[in-house]
Amino acid sequence: MAINTRLTNTNGVLEKNAVTYPRTGNIMAMYPLDESVVKAENGMLLGVDYTGKKITYPTATSEAVMLLDTAEKEYDKNVVGLNQHYITPTYGYMPRLGKLEVNDRFTTSTVAYDNATYADLDAIAAAIETGLYGVPCTTEGFKGCIELTTTKPTTQKVGLKAIALTTLPNGEPAIKFAVILAA
C-alpha cells in the first residue's frame, strides 16, 4: 500500500473530544521544530528529540510520538479559518504537543491513505465499520500525518482506532480516533 492522498487538501484541523493531556499537564511546548520539518499541522503525530531539543517527524511507526495541538490564533490578519494554521521552523512560535493516553479521543483531518485502497469517503466509512486503524506516517510528503491501515497496531508506541467518519466545524471531512496504544 502506497500512501499518496490526504483526507483534505488544506492544512490539518484538530478537535479534542476527550484527551487527558490538558488536565494532566503532559504537554511539550518548549522545543522548536527541527529544520527537517517542512510544515507542522494540528492533528499530526510528531516525535520529540530530547537530546537535540527539537520536534521532529517520526522516522518509524514504532517511534514514540505526541499529538500536535498548537493554539489556532490569528498571527496574521490575512490568514483566518480553522484550516489555515500551521507552523514552520522559521515561523517563530513553539509547537505544543500533547501526550496521548489509552482511551483519549480526538477528531482530525490530518490523515493520509492510499487512494487505490480507499477511493472515496464512502470507502473509508465502510472500512471504519470493519476495523480501520491509524499509525504515524513516515512516507515522504505525508510525514507526521495519521496513516490509515487495516492492520491493528500492536508494536507501535501510539496506535489509534478509527471510530467515525465525521465533519469538522468548518465543513471538512475528518476521522474521529480513539487511542488504543500509548507509551
What does this structure look like?
- The protein is mainly beta and 183 residues long.
- Helix content is 8%, strand content 33%.
- The chain contains two helices and 15 strands.
- It has helices spanning 21-24, 121-130, and strands at 5-6, 14-18, 27-28, 40-41, 45-49, 54-56, 66-68, 86-87, 97-98, 105-108, 111-113, 133-136, 146-149, 158-167, 173-182.
- The strands form three sheets. The protein has an eight-stranded mixed sheet with strand order 1-11-13-12-14-15-10-2.
- The longest helix is centred in the C-terminal third of the chain and has 10 residues, at 121-130.
- The chain is globular.
- The protein starts with a strand and ends with a strand.
Give a concise summary.
With 183 residues, the protein is mainly beta. It has 2 helices and 15 strands. The chain is globular and about 40 Å long.
Q: Detail the poorly predicted runs.
A: none
Total strands: the figure is 15
- Main β-sheet, spatial strand arrangement: 1-11-13-12-14-15-10-2
**SSE order, one letter for each helix or strand:** EEHEEEEEEEEEHEEEE
Derived from helix and strand composition plus strand pairing, the structural class reads mainly beta
Helix content: under 10%
Question: Average pLDDT across residues?
Answer: 90
Number of helices: 2
Shape by Cα distribution = globular
Biggest β-sheet strands, sense, barrel: 8 strands, mixed
Q: Distance N terminus to C terminus?
A: 26 Å
Radius of gyration: 15 Å
What proportion strand? 25-35%
Question: What are the salient characteristics of this protein?
Answer:
8-stranded mixed beta sheet, mainly beta, 5-stranded antiparallel beta sheet, about 35% strand, about 180 residues
